[in-house]
Design goal:
The complex is a heterodimer of chains A (349) and B (360).
Chain A: H1 2-39, E1 44-48, H2 59-74, E2 77-81, H3 88-98, E3 103-106, H4 112-121, E4 126-130, E5 139-144, H5 146-160, E6 165-172, H6 175-191, E7 196-203, H7 212-224, E8 229-233, H8 238-247, E9 251-256, E10 267-273, H9 275-287, E11 294-298, E12 305-307, H10 319-334, H11 342-348
Chain B: H1 2-24, H2 29-41, H3 44-69, H4 77-92, H5 102-131, H6 135-156, H7 195-212, H8 214-224, H9 226-231, H10 236-252, H11 254-263, H12 274-284, H13 289-312, H14 318-332, H15 341-349
Helix pairs in contact in B: 1-2, 1-14, 2-3, 2-13, 3-7, 3-10, 3-11, 3-12, 3-13, 4-5, 4-6, 4-10, 4-11, 4-12, 5-6, 5-10, 7-8, 7-13, 12-13, 13-14
The chains are: A alpha/beta (349), B mainly alpha (360).
Chain lengths: 349, 360
């Protein structure tokens, strides 16, 4: 027993010595990096993801892509953080602001209250929040006209469907996702008035955006009811939907990022919500001193919203469909065609 | 005293393990210790967040400890604190916005939080006393019921439509508990509030109750041996039922720091497992109110500094922060460590014989 104890202790000592050495190295490194920092005034950007995390292949990843592009092209200093739970949003935002970051970008409506509180505390720091509005002069609220894009992919779905039944799998049942659902249904009916639209939500909590198992379950049940094109507006829950459609060799529609590559041949298209563009533009504006608070809308017109055609799906969609889509797109942009907007409908009811 | 020293030694051991772990992934342990300490206690605002995270843990820790003393294992704190929070948030919206007796209203809300939690606690208590069904299973199941049910109510019946998240409307100023910053030199908007002192007061009251009153003696007697307590004429059923109610009530008081003190509303997902962390807090605090307060502050500090670790280091992700926290819980609560022969030998050599069994 005593022997092993001695062994243990001597190992500990060795470990400590090793650490000691590393410590001095790191301190040197730190000193040099600090020296660099004080010389150049790099523009510092902090990015707070929501609980789905940076690798959701969808919404958060899109934001991450935009920020990384800015890092490469504009030479900003970028730090990202994935809060472990709901109570950490405020602390994460606060930490960025109090460490003197120039711009803090918060991804997702779930951070609305956190940004509201922290931005009020730090009027000198610039904030940007995606998908919801915070009415403070130092906060830019980046909003997307999701209903326009959903309408278009609804049309694609209805035109592709052989069974005249299409499905919608939403993430959390909130106004934002209902906005997708209602416009998708309207788009499908616009292309084919007789189409049947099945709508399901994965849940009522934020976990509904990161539950692929539930996504697969819902998609399978919709397939059993005859759906052969399913639109997943559900964060990483959508990955389960794609699994289900690939197994039955029918079609899914992706969301936010271009998800066509995930199951090539089984993903009809993706409704693009260019969070990356919004993030990149916001960073650029803030860096050039043109930052403005208030609501900023991204729509079909400025390509903030679009549908994806690339090498993975160009054989799935024929030219006739594309012509019709482009025509409808122009009508929506010119205001000739009104797409139902849940935000407006729910306010009037 | 003995258990306090043991806990402290265990904490240092845990930190040593953490050091080995982080040096394996290429971070400097000293740097990590420094971040852990400064981000929890290093500045006024850091300390404020630590107190804020500690407050709900004191309540749930006390709740679990009370049940432990009666020999019950209350895993239902999460559901009970949801009940307390929802009840205060919903009833709170009916309180007049202006009142000349705000303290009276706050006292009423404390009562509401306690009763709502107690209601959820008494059900497993009744089932245990009259049907003999095990409280562990019942309390776990009651968690699911409570959280799902209340999320449903918050979404479809009491939702504040001005925000996207599932939350009830804000409660009026009257019943909001003041922030610590109104008395102490903290930053104006930092989250810690006077619920912390209410938690300290509750801990003291629980100490008095358990060790200085006849009821407390009965509770502990039932915890030591149900049969003996029964033979000496203690009404065991009554003790089982009321201890679960009290325990649930204590958990319900989490509403004070979260709903009345910080969020001012019930929000889906507001608790990041306070109820379950309460079990760890009670274990680490050896079921003693003072120990629980200290353990809560430690856990609050860990949670607070966890985010800082992700922030200030290159390689430590949020998952590793969880590993480190788990490691600390694991080592600090492993009591058997001190009974190992080599550990005894070290302690003996260091003349810390007070730590050995039977000598304290």
């Amino acid at each position: 027993m005593l022997k092993s104890l001695h062994l243990f202790l001597s190992l500990c000592m060795l470990g400590l010595l090793a650490c000691e050495k590393k410590q001095s190295e790191i301190e040197n490194k730190e000193k040099s990096s600090q020296a660099q920092q004080s010389e150049s005034t790099t523009f510092k950007v902090g990015l707070v993801f929501d609980k789905a995390g940076a690798d959701d292949k969808s919404f958060n990843e899109s934001a991450s892509r935009g920020a990384k592009q800015a890092q490469e092209e504009l030479g900003i200093e970028l730090k990202t953080i994935e809060p472990p739970d709901d109570s950490a949003y405020e602390l994460s935002n606060e930490r960025f602001a109090s460490r003197g970051y120039d711009l803090v970008i918060s991804v997702g409506f779930i951070q609305e209250e956190a940004v509201q509180k922290v931005a009020a505390r730090h009027p000198e720091t610039k904030f940007a929040i995606i998908d919801t509005t915070v009415n403070l002069p130092n906060v830019a609220s980046l909003m997307f006209e999701e209903h326009q894009g959903s309408f278009l992919v609804g049309m694609i779905a209805a035109m592709k469907s052989k069974t005249a039944t299409v499905g919608f799998v939403g993430g959390m049942d909130i106004p934002l996702i209902r906005r997708f659902a209602i416009a998708y249904e309207a788009g499908a009916k616009h292309a084919n008035p007789d189409v049947k639209v099945l709508t399901n939500y994965a849940g009522v909590t934020i976990e509904a955006f990161s539950d692929p198992t539930k996504g697969k379950e819902l998609a399978s049940s919709q397939i059993a009811q005859g759906a052969d094109v399913i639109f997943a507006a559900a964060g990483s829950t959508g990955l389960g939907v794609f699994d289900a459609v690939a197994e039955k060799n029918i079609f899914g529609i992706g969301v936010d990022s271009n998800q066509n590559w995930i199951k090539p041949g089984n993903i009809l298209t993706s409704m693009l919500k260019r969070v990356d563009v919004a993030v990149y533009e916001t960073i650029k504006e803030a860096m050039n001193g043109n930052f403005e608070g208030g609501v900023k809308r991204f729509s079909l017109e400025d390509k903030g919203i679009d549908y994806a055609i690339d090498q993975y799906n160009k054989d799935l969609i024929n030219q006739e469909t594309i012509d019709q889509l482009e025509k409808t797109k122009k009508q929506i942009i010119s205001g000739e065609l009104k797409v139902p907007d849940y935000y407006v409908i729910s306010k009037n009811s | 005293m003995k258990s306090l020293i043991r806990s402290i030694i265990a904490l240092f051991l845990a930190l040593a393990c953490t050091g080995v772990l982080v040096s394996c992934i290429g971070e400097s342990p000293w740097q990590v210790y420094k971040i852990l300490f400064t981000s929890a206690f290093g500045s006024l605002s850091a300390f404020n967040y630590t107190l804020y995270y500690a407050t709900p843990l004191i309540f749930t820790g006390l709740a679990v400890a009370l049940a432990f003393h009666v020999g019950l294992f209350n895993i239902g704190c999460e559901g009970q604190l949801y009940m307390g929070a929802f009840a205060t948030a919903v009833i709170g919206t009916y309180i007049p916005a202006q009142s000349s007796f705000p303290l009276l209203w706050i006292a009423l809300m404390i009562l509401v939080a306690f009763l709502a939690g107690a209601l959820w606690g008494i059900i497993p208590g009744l089932l245990k006393a009259y049907r003999g069904s095990h409280e562990v299973i019942n309390t776990i199941m009651m968690n699911f019921i409570s959280i799902s049910l209340l999320t449903y109510f918050a979404l479809y019946h009491f939702k504040d439509h001005s925000i996207q998240a599932i939350a009830t409307p804000l409660i009026p100023e009257t019943i909001r508990i003041a922030k610590l910053s109104s008395w102490f030199p903290f930053e104006h908007t930092s989250p810690a509030n006077f619920a912390f002192f209410i938690a300290l007061g509750t801990a003291y009251l629980l100490y008095i109750f358990l060790w200085k009153t006849r009821y407390g003696f009965e509770y502990r007697a039932v915890g030591k041996s149900l049969q003996v307590a029964h033979s000496t004429g203690i009404n065991v059923k009554k003790v089982l039922i009321f201890s679960m109610a009290l325990s649930g009530g204590l958990a319900g008081l989490v509403a004070l720091s979260e709903v009345l003190g910080h969020l001012y509303r019930f929000k889906e997902g507001f608790s990041h497992g306070y109820g379950f962390l309460g079990i760890a807090v009670a274990l680490l605090g050896r079921n003693h109110p003072l120990g629980i307060v200290l353990a809560s502050i430690l856990f609050g500090a860990l949670h607070n500094s966890g985010i800082a670790l992700e922030f200030d280091t290159a390689h430590i992700s949020r998952d590793l922060v969880g590993v480190i926290q788990g490691l600390i819980i694991l080592v600090t609560t492993s009591d058997g460590l001190f009974e190992l022969p080599w550990m005894k030998k070290i302690l003996k050599n260091m003349k810390l014989s007070i730590l050995q069994k039977g000598k304290a």
